[in-house]
Amino acid sequence: MGQEVLTGERAQHDYRRCRDEDCQRYACRIFKEGFGQGYGAGHSAGEAKGHAEGYDEGFVDGMAACPGPHTGG
């Protein structure tokens, strides 16, 4: 029944990590329902709006300025 997360001496069922589509725990059902509705309603519109507003402008400069090991490619 879902993925269990070990915390100390007992296992807790984390509704955010539960991958059991048939899990009947209330928190799991409500989280999956809300996440699905929110993602379905907002992801496409938000992504389109972000592209229209130029969210990726400055990406190349940001990657070049980053001290991390990546090369920006």
Your description of this structure?
The protein contains two helices and two strands. The chain is mainly alpha-helical and 73 residues long. The chain has one domain. A two-stranded antiparallel sheet has the order 1-2.
Give a summary of the structure in a few sentences:
The protein is mainly alpha-helical and 73 residues long. The chain contains two helices and two strands; from the N terminus they run E-E-H-H.
Please name the defining characteristics of this protein.
about 70 residues, two-stranded antiparallel sheet, 2 helices, 2 strands, about 45% helix, about 10% strand
Computed over alpha carbons, the radius of gyration is: 19 Å
Number of domains: 1
Low-pLDDT residue spans: none
Strand content: 5-15%
